[in-house]
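Morning F.,

Quick status update on the modeling queue. The single chain you submitted on Monday has been processed. Sequence for confirmation:
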Amino acid sequence: MRENSANGLSRFAMETGVALLTGAFGIAVAYGSIEAGAGWTEMGPDAGYFPFYIGLLIVFGSAMNLVYAVVKHRGSGEIFVDMARFKVVLGFLLPLVAFAVVSTLLGLYVGTALYIAGTMTFQGKYKWWAGLAAGMGVALFFFVIFEIGFKVPLLKGPVEAFFGIY
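Structure tokens below.
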């Protein structure tokens, strides 16, 4: 399957990016394991002994994937995803990233309400007031179920603090 890579994301770029990302993850695991102690003591392995070697295996597998990508897909022009489909994926990925950021800064309930309202309004083409009502309803439902019903506190932010909900 040879295509012009100008029409989308090439398979080589994608495989290289994933190999580098998983390699960085493996390095982070191995480094964190060294800080926890990756050696062998008189009582057996330290806390980071097994995670250290798992991190090394991840790095090794990532290096092999990188070599495979260079050998097999470099210069092939094979398309991993075309731009039309990539825009659809981004249409769902970017709101999820925004949801994670907003939930971290403002709390899970505010993030949920804004995510539901925004998704219904912009992607579902509902009227803004219907999306806002649904978003607030879902957030209120989650609050009642988790905070009151199950007594499980979820991440709250400054909005809940303003209303004295803690």
